[in-house]
Specification:
The chain contains 3 helices and no strands. The chain is mainly alpha-helical and about 80 residues long. Helix 2 (about 35-55) packs across helix 3 (about 60-80).
Length: about 80
């Protein structure tokens, strides 16, 4: 009980330092207009579909396929 309480307090104390770093890592490009958002969304969907097909062709298990798709999309988006 005491250990859980201490870990919870430590986690809450570190949250302000961790949260901005996660948001910065996950942020995409700053899109202004609905047209730009639609183009970006369509491009992302196409790349996800492409990576999903690759993962299925390799016959990966669920967790490995999911990890592969995330890495593949990240690779594809950085290479655009």
């Amino acid at each position: 009980m005491t250990r859980t309480l201490i870990l919870a307090i430590a986690g809450l104390a570190m949250w302000p330092a961790i949260a901005p770093a996660q948001q910065a890592a996950m942020s995409g490009p700053k899109l202004d207009s609905p047209g730009e958002i639609a183009v970006w969304s369509t491009m992302l969907t196409q790349k996800q579909d492409y990576c999903r097909r690759q993962a299925r062709a390799r016959k990966l298990t669920y967790m490995k396929r999911r990890s592969f798709v995330r890495a593949c999309v990240k690779r594809e988006m950085s290479g655009r």
